Amino acid sequence: MCDRWKFPDSASFFMYHIALLLMIAAEAFIVIYTQPKDRGTDKTNKRDKGTKWLLIINFYVCIYLSFFMVGQKGWDSVLNTKLPVVVTYPGIILMLAGIMIRLRAVLTLKRSFTLSVQTSKEQHLITTGIYKKVRNPAYTGSICSLVGTALGLRGGIALVMVLIFSLICYSARISLEEKVLRSHFGNEFTEYEKKALIG
To answer: Helix %, strand %, coil % for the chain, to 5?
Structure first.
């Protein structure tokens, strides 16, 4: 995936690639885990407006950018701006932390977690576990992993681009999702908003 010389040592090279594979495996697990619910039923009200695909595209574009920016030979002074070697391990840690946060969020919601923005009559507002303090921990986890991907490769421009793209895409998704939840749960969600961070 990435040349050994781009890392400060062999340990960071292997740890980074293991973290990257775990990140992709976690996303595959989430897609499989949510598959039956995304087919929709008469009781399901889908209001996704394409944000599911926005997040999927953002995920792979951010990974691509992280590698592309450190792989350029001709524009080294601009695209290949390197951060200090010391950021490699914090990047790997951020990737792993993001995976754990996202998986914990998904498993806390259990069968209520969906990739599409949708509501159903049987749906309950979950405000326990990781959702007690943070309203969108699954998105927080994704952003951490994507930022860690760029940081681990020490790509300065890539890091900025990943941050900008992720904040734009996840802000659009959160705005739509919270509007739908506010409409579906009414005062219950409004009270929850006051207690939990947007995250």
So the answer is: 70, 5, 25
Average confidence (pLDDT) over 81-99: 93
Can you point out the beta strands (E) in the chain? 44-46, 118-120
Residues sharing a CB contact under 8 Å with residue 190, sequence separation 6 or more, in sequence order: 182
Among 118, 117, 134, 109, residue whose Cα is nearest residue 193: 134
- State the distance between the two ends of the chain, measured CA to CA, in whole angstroms: 31
Task: Name 79's bridge partners.
Answer: none
- pTM value? 0.88
Q: If you write DSSP's letter for every residue of 68-98 in order, what string do you get?
A: HHHH-STTTTTTTPBPPGGGHHHHHHHHHHH
Cα–Cα distance for residue pair 14/36, rounded to 1 Å: 35
Residue with tokens 């919601």: 109
Tokens of 120: 């159903």
Residues in contact with 152: Cβ distance below 8 Å, sequence separation at least 6, in sequence order: 12, 16, 19, 87, 88, 91, 92, 94, 95
Q: What is the mean pLDDT of the chain?
A: 87
pLDDT one-digit tens code per residue, 35-55: 765 455 545 667 888 899 999
CB 59 within 8 A of CB 146: yes
